[in-house]
Design goal:
alpha/beta, Rossmann fold, 8-stranded mixed beta sheet, binds 1-O-pyrophosphono-5-O-phosphono-alpha-D-ribofuranose, binds uracil
Length: 230
């Protein structure tokens, strides 16, 4: 049995159960997956595979937050099953580049889903986000949106992406922001500015370092995933 140290659990607890932050259960399996991808010496093939497994868990958790309607079906033995079905249409929106790593996981469970793109890059020096481009489904305002970006650090990129969605008429309450790892600073900034946005994450880190990277963190996710790390 792994003896989970008290400190990180206590740190995360203050966010658990708050209205907008949904932290995946910190199971041993999840920690084992994190252990692989956080290892600075992991092979890229394994980084891609194991981050994909966590992304799949996150997407399933995100779909759980959608509204459902009652739906009865008749079973093969002639009985009624009181079931549920999704009550609204959805779409994905990935924040390019790192968010694109989450598209395959979304398509694996929602085959024909529409996926919009928002290209935002953090300036390497100032760490401030720059919005370059967006392309979104025409009817996005009437859909629930799964916003995909594996990293929530200062929150600058998230705020810029959410702003694009709001300007296209998407209600805050219809945005489910799916992240692999988050910093307390990023959670705070998104929660204050957009309390209706739901955040689904698999880890809340200790803090940001002086270069606005999360610690203990994972390094530059996009570089490691796409193989552009120095
Ligand atoms: C990374 C990451 C997020 C952003 C988070 O993207 O994928 O989009 O930083 O940081 P923030 O919360 O401080 O804004 P980056 O701009 O490095 O581009 P990439 O996707 O090409 O790696
Ligand atoms: N972007 C990343 O890829 N990693 C961080 O820790 C912060 C921003």
């Amino acid at each position: 049995m792994i003896d989970m140290s008290i400190a990180p659990v206590m740190r995360t607890r203050e966010y658990v159960g708050t209205k907008n932050v949904h932290l995946l259960p910190q199971t041993n399996q999840l920690r084992a997956l994190h252990t692989v991808i956080r290892d600075r010496n992991v092979r890229r093939e394994d980084f891609v595979f194991y981050s994909g497994r966590i992304i799949r868990l996150l997407i399933e958790a995100g779909l759980n937050l959608l509204p459902f309607d009652p739906c009865e079906v008749e079973t093969p033995v002639g009985k009624t099953y009181d079931g549920l079905r999704f009550a609204s249409q959805i779409c994905g929106v990935s924040v390019v580049r790192a968010g694109e790593s989450m598209e395959a996981g979304l398509r694996a469970v929602c085959g024909s889903i529409r996926i919009g793109k928002i290209l935002i890059q953090r300036d390497k020096r100032t760490k401030l986000p720059h919005l370059y481009y967006s392309s979104l489904p025409e009817d996005i305002a009437r859909r629930h949106v799964l916003l995909l970006d594996p990293m929530l650090a200062t929150g600058g990129t998230a705020l810029a992406a959410i702003q694009v969605l709001l300007e296209r008429g998407v209600a805050e309450e219809k945005i489910i922001f799916i992240n692999l790892i988050t910093a307390p600073e990023g959670i705070a900034v998104v929660g204050e500015r957009h309390p209706g946005v739901k955040i689904v994450t698999s880890s809340i880190e200790e803090r940001l370092n002086e270069n606005a990277y999360m610690v203990p963190g994972i390094g530059d996710f996009g570089d490691r995933y796409f193989g552009t790390d120095p």
